[in-house]
Structure formats: structure tokens, C-alpha cells
Amino acid sequence: MSHMTLYLDCNATTPIDPRVLAEVHRCFMEEIGNAGSPHEFGLRARDIVHQARDQIAKVIAAKRNEIIFTSGATESNNLAIFGLVEHGITSGRKHIVSTRIEHKAVLEPLAELRRRGFEVTLVPPEQNGRVAADAVLDAVRSDTLLVSLMHVNNETGVIQPVVQVAERLVAPDVFLHVDAAQGFGKDLAPLRHSRIDLMSISSHKIFGPVGVGALMVRRRRDRAIPLTPLLYGGGQELGLRPGTLPVALISGFGMAAQLSAAEVESRRTACLAIRGQLLAGLAPLHPVFHGAGDLTLPHVVCVSFPGVDADDAIERLTGVIALSTGSACTTVCATASHVLSAMGVPQPELDGAVRISWSHQTDVAELAQRLPAIVERLRP
Ligand SMILES: Cc1ncc(COP(=O)(O)O)c(C=O)c1O
Q1: 271 is catalytic
Q2: Which of 112, 191, 229, 298 fits 271 for a cystine, CB–CB 3.0-4.6 Å?
Q3: Is the Cα dihedral 183, 189, 190, 196 positive or negative?
Q4: Which domain holds residue 42?
Q5: What's the confidence (pLDDT) of residue 1?
């Protein structure tokens, strides 16, 4: 057995796929042009960016010109939310609907908008970790500008009712934003819904390089999305996100997106096998799971072990497996999970909750070998 700690924190960030890394490396070495330059190096860079845009767009049934490259989902969320502010003010629509279980990269921009005079309704989840579509739709008012709903929760892995909301959100003046950072390339169908106006995605959650992401901005003939940029500069990305494009990262992101869709079923099967093994191995500890198992993606569990505090659990598992308490941000910020507390998880379990997240790349034999040590160390 290798002495390296087994990495089980894939919802925080995924290890890069070796095929993607080879492509990123090739681009850094060989594709040296600026995608905005007129010469052959620039043209080659432009072609690479076009190809990546197509690869990403295809996964979500979007068009090439609907993909705006950003630095990641945090920036995409900020562009989607703050980008609509001017329109909200001029049209008198200053109400936003979102949920209590969003990532901080949505909740913090919304908190800032509250300080700027917007009204924000945050819909709570049910105990199973899922927000009811009805509750989201019932919160929409005549002055609602935006509904922002995450696709898959980063702490519990619970899939949210994006399609149900998209189907029934008929008011044409209400924009629908989906933070798809955790589900893009993993749960394909909901993200192909044409009612979605804006969608945030990130490369480092799908085995691509960190530092690049995208915002899908729907282009409809009859209904333009009145988005204003956060940055001003050289006009790249239709003026919505100026700055020299990181061609190598974008190329890797495109390949990672394409692979995620092509391999979605085999990855799912591999993750399910790991899930089965992990849950069976942990059973002697009488774990309490947060988020209904039948609603979650197969590569994550959020779990408490009775009598063991989360920080304590992580420390005891040092050198065996690496995992998180809630979101990576929450770990750094050292606050209790806002997601689990919104779900009504009682305090002792809240203090004990850890998130274990793996991938199709996780070595199932390694995990099997470590399970006895995990159980031993987690006994209260
Ligand atoms: C649901 C969700 N939204 C947004 C983000 C932020 O993504 P990025 O790290 O690409 O900025 C994350 C990452 O943890 C996430 O899980």
C-alpha cells in the first residue's frame, strides 16, 4: 500500500485528467499566440478556442457564441448576478429569488445586492436537501428580476429541481441562472433545458485545469439578456469578459468537457461501485447521512459519525484519507455549514458532518485497503 493519503475531496477540486494535462502542456509549449492577434499564431490560438467553445457548448446543448470564458464559477456567478443589476434598476425589477443552500459565490453577491437596495428571497431546502420547485416558483413576484438556483449542491451532492423550475418559470422577464459548477459534465440532461438563461460552470470540477470556467449566456432573437460586464478592456468575449484568453487552459477545459460527456456513464458506474464499497465499509460506525441518497450524485456523501466531531474526524484520518467539513470555503472560514443547518440537521450531527467525495479516477482497491483503518480511527 502506498503511504500517500487517499484524496477524497473531489467536490473541492478534481485532479487533472492526464489526457487533459498533456493537451494543456502541448498548448503552453506549442501554441504561443494571442487569440486576438492577426498572424498565424493568433489564428491557431483562435481555432483552439473555437474548438473548446464548441466542446463545452455541446455538453449543455448551447451554441458556440453563448459561451463566455471566465476564471471559474465564482466569477461566472458574479457576472450573472451583478451583470443584471443595471437592467434591474432601470426596469424597476429589484427582487431576486434564490435558495439558502447556494454556494457562497452566489450568496455573497446576493448579500451585496441587499446592501444596494435589492430584495432577496432565499428559499429553504426540505430535510432531504432538495429545494421544492413549488417553493421557488411561489417566491417569484411581479418585480422579480432573477431566479438563481444551483444544479447540484456542493456539500450534499443533492440534485436540485432545475428542470421543474425551468419548465414552469414562464414569466419572460424573469431570468433563470443556474450555478452548475458541481453537476456540469456529470448530470447532463437538466442543463440542456433551453429556458436556462445563464449558467456557471468550472473546469477544475471536471478534471480540467483550475483557473478557467465559463458563463453560458443564452442568445435568443426575441429576448436578449441585458447583461453588463464587470470588467472593461480589450473587448474579448463579446465585451462581457475582456482580457487575453488563456488558450492552454481553455483547450484543457474543452477537452475535459468533451470527455465528461463521452464518459458520463462509465464514470457514473465507477463512482457507484466506490459508493457501495464505502457505505458498506462505514456501516459498523452507524453513520448518519445528510441529503437523500436517491437524490444525490454517486460520487459524494455528507455524513456524521455519532460521537465524533468533524474536525476531530479529519485529524484522526490524517495520512489515511483527505476529506472536508462541508464546503472547502466553510473549512477555511471555520463556520458551521449553512447548507446542513438550513436542512434542519441537529447540532451534534451538524458539528460532526464531513463530506467525502471521490471520482472515477479514485483507486477502489486503495480505498478497500484503507477502510479498516478508517473505521478503527473513527470509533468514538
Ligand atoms: C456550487 C459551486 N459554485 C461555485 C463554486 C466556485 O467555483 P470556482 O472554484 O470555479 O470559482 C463552487 C466551487 O466550490 C461550487 O461548488
Answers
A1: no
A2: 298
A3: positive
A4: 18-261
A5: 41
